Amino acid sequence: MKTFSAYFKRSAVYFFILLFCYAAISKTLDFENFQVQIGQSPLLSAYAGLISYLVIAIEMVTVLCLSFQKTRLFGLYAATSLMSAFTIYIYLILHYSDFVPCSCGGILEKMGWTEHLMFNIVCLVFGGIAVWIDEQENNRPKRRTAILLALSNFISCIVIILLFVSSEYIIKKENNFTRRFLQHPIEEKQRIKLRYDQYYIAGTDHQVIYLGSLKYPQKMILVNTQTGKIDSMTIKPESLDFPFKKLKLQVKNCFYYLSDGTVPIIFRGTVGNPNAKIISYKDAYFSQIEPADSMQFVIRTHNSRTQQLTLGTLDLAEKNKVVLNNKLLTKQTDGVFDSDGKLISVNNSSQFAYLYSYRNRFLIMNRDATKGQEFKTIDTVNNASIKSKSLSTGLHKMTVPPLVVNQDMAVHKNIVMIQSKLKAKNEPQSSSLTTAVIDVYNIDNSEYVGSFYIYHNGKHRLTDFITTETSLYALIGNELVGYNYQSSIKKYFKKGEAENLIQE
Length: 504
Prior knowledge:
This protein is α+β, with helices and mostly antiparallel strands.
């Protein structure tokens, strides 16, 4: 019996030496990838930097302890505690995680998470028996051995649970700019070839995506996402005898609008009819505009009184057509460049959103631009990193290139998708060369949901995207690419019609 016990203990020691030695060396040789895997873990991503070093260090210390007779018992306790930690980690992944990530590489790469859990449990029992045998060989009380085994394994499990709870709070509420990548949130369903690559998305209506052309501003492209058929229409404005700089097309409901805020004019037409009439002239200058309905618009303009960017409304049915709200955009330095961003209309809603370009903020507001709620993105740029100078002419000029934080935005119901320009701590250096990263937020509870990549097509990058009820559509070079939402992201969408996103 003693011979079997000694053989069993020796086998356990050699097994754990081999297991942890291999694990530590493989992680060290591919350390960047290991950090990325930890960072993309749904449980420990907030501590990816610390844990990636700590796990390797603990595994190597455990190997050293197991290698020497005097410290072998301590090594066995450490090995069982590690296996307990790994076991509870996998259990939490399977039962309490928002999604189940891919398995880690190494010797267990081919295992699924359930098989991995069973393997860890077997190792835990194996190590526990070896500890018991060693303690009994040294005539130590069984009660003491049982208490030490239970306590060491209990503590290791509690540590993992506390890290999980803390990481969840940091990632979702106080993110330290560590991204959590959702598992297959979108799946490509179609690629529709376009004539060239200078388009932008002007709007959507059921199964039709409307595109505007940077090359031919009066051209409207209609893409049927069900059939893949592409139609076009050349808009004929009532008059073109104006010094336009950049005509922009927008489509909402059954109307299209053509405008250029440097010239205070808006054309409106019915989809399918190329003739566009002037509905507003000299009512307001604006740098951005979004239609609320056929007569009301939300605008961004330069307030001549405050000399700052300001949001407001242009209502053609009212006597006092322009109403500005100086409280919606928050000034940090000059009130111009620090408040720069993108104004968009929220799909299937009468609300609007504004994404700051140079700081980690976005705004959801009502159609009257009288009330807004500000939300925070996961990056750490609280203040716009810009330097500008006010000229004697009243114009503002940047003196150094700014740090661009946010590129683009799409909103559907309670879900906000933001194309970020910044790389998180747990992303590989090369990620920005081949992908655009989209961060997803649930504004019902001010929570960061996760992130996903949209892959570039060679030298062609993502230039615009929009969300619909079931899909995401992206312009990448001369292709309109459609993606279906998968369960890992669909579960966050609010069911039914879009509701008021602003908390009263």
